TrEMBL record, chain B:
UniProt keyword terms in alphabetical order: ATP-binding, Cell inner membrane, Cell membrane, Membrane, Nucleotide-binding, Translocase, Transport
Pfam family, one: ABC_tran
Every ABC transporter domain range: 6-233
SUPFAM superfamilies assigned to the protein according to its UniProt record, in alphabetical order: P-loop containing nucleoside triphosphate hydrolases
GO annotations of cellular component type: membrane protein complex
Protein family: Belongs to the ABC transporter superfamily. Macrolide exporter (TC 3.A.1.122) family.
GO molecular-function term, one example from the UniProt record: transmembrane transporter activity
Gene3D superfamilies: P-loop containing nucleotide triphosphate hydrolases
Keyword Cell membrane tagged: yes
SMART domains cross-referenced by the UniProt entry: AAA
Organism: Zhengella mangrovi
Name this protein carries in UniProt: ABC transporter
Length: 789, 235
């Protein structure tokens, strides 16, 4: 079958304009790519999470207590809406891994006598679950096992409830409860230093004196059950046993991290693609307007021959659709490829036993519809112009363009600018909308780069604030339970400890203005140097004698200001409720937290001076000795190594940022190049005659290029401050999207980030300028001058 | 006899495309003298524009030699040809080729800015009778006025040669006469060697010499005993 003549024209136009077509298609591809990438990864992750949670019975409600009898389980299961109940013993552990000097932390979870947990089931990757009567057999989570190359049959030592034991791995497992497993004091998962492991209930009962008791509870609810009511009922039942308040999935750490990641992906899918689609619509508009102008006579001829207006409109629409389809094909396949990559990256970050890729066809249909629609929207005006021309008018040349003087430039008056510069400026003023849109397009690429790179600045400041100004200790020890303050002397005697300061951490529920938040109040003694509370300007705050210091985000959520009386429920102290005034609002980037003077907290919580942990500064040369000692310390619940956390954080975030920057820089260069190159090509086409005339008049190639390049340079330079501004706004919205109760990133953009963004974009603009310059060099003077405009 | 400005010797020009070979010039000899006004007649494709483009440094000959005074144009580089056009040649084309974004005065100033001994743009415009229209943009001028601006632009640098390709081709006769009058006055007052290509045989009466082209060669040439003034030309 042969193509209709008009379709042949479409094909030839596409071939002839290939460079511009490709430039537009690439910009469009970026939009499609981000849709497919972000939405695809979102759906894949969401689907994976949903299936995983469902199949492995992830709990809906969670609670902890000091020590509650197993018999309470029956009453709990009778709560309206509860489908199944999991009662466990969960305790912290310090691990001593062969060949690793640094101590690792762990969480030990009891396995029911029946073997398989009714809630939060385990995915068995290899081996077999520990036998109920084998006290030293454990199942470990896969990431920890992988990090150490552990297989079933391997063993390591751990301090559990004050006993040092050797544990043997029988199974490698994954749990929906620990999709994101983060150790104490860490900001990103560190698989080597944090383990979750499951051991038979019997063994744990003996180690922790928990026979016939539990201290951790997970529930699965019936469909349609009220989480709120179940939580209240559980709280009521657990109250006599030191219950610390039940909570739902949204507050479960692993799930909360996963949710915040999914929210970000969703935000990315909503914010970024429109930018590209807008830019590509503008480019389509530019190129098609020019094409219609050039083909004015052909359009007249076609109409004179009897082609209908609709046929002509459809002809140009096909060209546009073809461009959109090329963009769709490129963006779709790259997006699909990157989407798989991103999902896998997430799978590395989060721990899933399987991945479900959801690349459903509707996503592509949506991407296609959106990109074709934006392209047609961009082309609409040009097509309308083509359709409206009466044939007789079309076959006559268009009326000459009218220009205005810029800033009242007068003939004969001595002037500051050469005529060549005047030409460039007048052209810009003559088409103000196009100049503005071109500038906007280039500024978008600057903005994308700023947005891509600022996170590195912000995280830099975050690391500096958290690790060098707030949490300045080398390590934080957390004791198994609250102890008398005299423990400080024991801590100070540990090898290599140069300074030790104690703290108390009391779990509470804060309530104000109808909102409640589950946090811990940290009590800090005056003169504490290893951990400092910073005010909103980043300066250390002297701990007031009374009252609460709330972090910014927490205060906002509770609608509390200095002076507000906040209701404090002391979860572990018989759920007493006391009203405490807020004395200051402070800064914190990690979690929600409240601080108090240590003595004031002791008075508030009773029963006398107590501490729950200590910060220490360590002589780096004696770290090994300390580690050795700590691994065998019975009273120690957990150890957080700030220096190791910091390095891990830097490394992990660094990798992410590098990947992200590479993608963004590629995208920004494509946009900058697409916009500058296309607008220069259109300019060249429109002004070929003028430029050839200049060559005839004896202007050199450099001088002739100057006319075009001046305009490009002005646009590119004007786009910089605008791009910085838009980049600032984009970055701010990204920061807002990042913020969660778990994590908040300060908003900082270094001047160097603006500078680098500008340099990259100006370089891309420079390259397209060079390409156009080459075209100017090849201008055919004679042919241009012989043809009528 | 006056000095020779151009000496073209056995000039040929062959345009070679993939499938077609066009012999635009097949051995042309022509000498143009200082202050002379020459008219080049001939049908389309007879080679007159090709020769004019070669004389003006817009194109190069395939073989033969073209001397502009001592300068061998056939041996010039692209850069040297640009220099040559800038310093010595004024062009006038059928479609004016004014810069639409520059006013009449500015279009002329465009050239005077880069010329070595230019006249004032106002003076050039006065010579073509457009002093009072100098602030207008091309879109605000009639075809004849635009062409006269083009002539002012061509002569403002005081070129030694003025090459005109169908300068009246797009104009009606009354307007065309004004343009021819400007060309004739400039030739007379400034002594600029002028070559005019035309389809319009009536114009030949103004010239000192008339060359008739046919099929890439000069078929005939003659000297006018009596030249008509532009105002006497009718078509």
């Amino acid at each position: 079958m042969s193509l209709a003549m008009l379709d042949r024209k479409v094909v030839r136009d596409l071939t002839r304009l290939w460079a511009q077509v490709l430039a537009i298609a690439l910009v469009m591809a970026c939009g499609v790519m981000t849709i497919v990438l972000a939405v695809g990864a979102y759906r894949s992750l969401d689907e994976t999470r949903h299936t995983y949670y469902d199949r492995y019975r992830f709990g809906h409600v969670f609670a902890t207590a000091n020590r509650a009898p197993l018999s309470l389980g029956r009453e709990i299961s009778r709560i309206d809406g509860v489908a199944s109940v999991g009662l466990r013993i969960v305790e912290p552990a310090v691990l001593d891994i062969p060949g690793m000097a640094v101590p690792a932390s762990g969480i030990a979870i009891s396995l029911p006598v029946t073997g398989e947990p009714p809630v939060n089931a385990l995915y068995l990757r290899s081996g077999r679950l520990p036998r109920p009567d084998a006290p030293r057999e454990i199942a470990v989570d896969e990431r920890f096992a992988k990090a150490h190359g552990f297989h079933p049959g391997d063993s390591f030592a751990a301090v559990l409830g004050g006993h040092k034991l050797t544990l043997t791995i029988t199974a490698i497992v994954l749990s929906p409860e620990y999709v994101y497993a983060i150790g104490p004091g860490d900001m990103v998962p560190d698989d080597r230093r944090f383990a979750v492991f499951w051991m038979p209930r019997k063994a744990m009962e003996g180690l922790f004196d928990m026979t016939g008791a539990f201290n951790d509870l997970s529930l699965i609810l019936l469909r349609g059950a009220s989480e709120r009511r179940v939580v209240d009922a559980v709280d009521h039942l657990l109250e006599p046993y030191g219950g610390r308040g039940a909570y739902g999935r949204s507050e479960q750490i692993s799930n909360a991290f996963l949710s915040s990641e999914l929210t970000q992906l969703n935000a990315m899918a909503r914010v970024i693609p429109p930018v590209f689609l807008f830019v590509s619509a503008f480019l389509v508009n530019m190129i098609l307007s020019r094409l219609v102008a050039l083909e004015r006579e052909q359009i007249g001829l076609l109409k004179a021959c009897g082609y209908s207006a609709a046929a002509i409109a459809w002809h140009y629409a096909k060209l546009v659709i073809a461009i959109a389809l090329i963009g769709l094909a490129i963006g779709g396949s790259v997006g699909n490829w990157l989407g798989h990559g991103l999902t896998r990256l997430y799978a590395d970050y989060f721990s899933f036993p399987f991945l479900i890729f959801r690349q459903s066809i509707d996503l592509y249909v949506m991407a296609a519809a959106v990109s074709v629609a934006s392209a047609i929207a961009g082309a609409a005006k040009a097509i309308w112009t083509a359709v409206r021309l009466p044939p007789a008018v079309a076959m006559r040349p268009p009326a000459p363009a009218r220009y205005r003087t810029v800033l009242g430039g007068r003939s004969g008056v001595p002037r500051l600018m050469s005529q060549l510069t005047t030409m460039a400026l007048r052209q810009m003023v003559h088409r103000p909308l196009r100049t503005a849109l071109t500038t906007l397009g280039v500024s978008f690429s600057v903005a994308l780069l700023v947005t891509a790179m600022f996170s590195s600045d912000s995280i830099d400041v975050m690391i500096d604030t958290i690790f060098f100004r707030a949490e300045r200790a080398d390590a934080r020890l957390t004791f198994g339970q609250e102890v008398a303050p005299e423990v400080i002397h024991d801590v100070a005697r540990l090898p290599g400890v140069m300074r030790a300061e104690t703290f108390r951490s009391v779990p509470v529920i804060l309530r104000n203005a109808g909102t409640e938040k589950r946090v811990a109040i940290t009590g800090i003694a005056p003169g504490t140097r290893l951990s400092q509370v910073l005010d909103l300007d980043g300066n250390p705050v002297a701990m007031p004698e009374n009252g609460l210091l709330l972090t910014d985000r927490l205060a906002r959520q509770l609608q509390a200001r200095p002076g507000t009386l906040v209701s404090v429920e002391l979860i572990a102290q018989g759920r007493r409720v006391v009203d405490v005034p807020v004395t200051a609002i402070v800064e914190s980037y990690v979690g929600l937290s409240a601080h108090m003077d240590l003595a004031a907290l002791d008075r508030l919580a009773g029963p006398g001076p107590r501490v729950s942990g200590a910060w220490i500064d360590v002589d780096a040369s004696r770290l090994e000795a300390l580690y050795d000692k700590v691994k065998a310390l019975p009273a120690l619940g957990a150890i957080a190594l700030q220096n190791v956390s910091r390095d891990k954080f830097r490394q992990s975030i660094g990798e992410n940022i590098l990947t992200m920057m590479t993608v963004y820089i590629a995208i920004a260069v494509i946009v900058a190049f697409g916009v500058v190159y296309n607008s220069a090509r259109i300019q060249l086409s429109e002004r070929a005659r003028e430029l050839a005339s200049l060559r005839v008049l004896g202007f050199t190639r450099a001088e002739v290029s100057h006319v075009l390049l001046t305009e490009m340079a002005i646009v590119a330079l004007a786009a910089q401050p605008l791009g910085w501004l838009i980049g600032y706004a984009f970055s701010l919205s990204v920061i807002k999207g990042f913020a969660s109760d778990l994590f908040r990133v300060p908003f900082v953009i270094y001047p160097s980030t603006y500078a680098i963004a500008s340099l990259v974009v100006l370089a891309a603009a420079g390259v397209s300028a060079l390409i156009v310059r080459r075209r100017v060099n090849r201008l055919d003077m004679i042919r241009v001058l012989k043809t009528r405009e | 006899m006056a000095d020779a400005v151009f000496i073209a010797d056995d000039v040929t020009k062959v345009y070679q495309t993939e499938s077609v070979t066009v012999r635009a010039l097949r051995g042309v000899d022509m000498t143009l003298y200082q202050g002379e006004m020459a008219v080049l007649l001939g049908p389309s494709g007879s080679g007159k524009s090709t020769l004019l483009n070669i004389l003006g440094g817009l194109d190069t000959a395939t073989s033969g030699s073209v001397l502009f005074r001592d300068l061998e144009l056939t041996r010039c580089s692209e850069r040297e040809l640009t220099r040559y056009r800038r310093d010595h040649v004024g062009f006038v084309f059928q479609f004016y080729n004014l810069i639409p974004s520059l006013s009449a005065w500015e279009n002329v100033a465009l050239v005077t800015e880069i010329a070595r001994h230019p006249m004032d743009p106002g003076e050039a415009l006065e010579m073509v009778g457009l002093k009072d229209r100098q602030r207008h943009f091309p879109a605000e001028l009639s075809g004849g006025e635009q062409q006269r601006v083009a002539i002012a632009r061509a002569i403002a640098k005081r070129p030694e040669v003025l090459l005109c390709d169908e300068p009246t081709g797009a104009l009606d006769s009354a307007t065309g006469v004004k343009v021819l009058d400007a060309l004739q006055r400039i030739n007379g007052e400034l002594g600029t060697t002028t070559a005019i290509i035309t389809h319009n045989a009536a114009i030949q009466e103004m010239a000192h010499r008339v060359f008739t082209f046919h099929d890439g060669r000069i078929a005939s040439q003659h000297v006018n005993e009596r030249r008509l003034a532009a105002s006497e030309v009718v078509w």
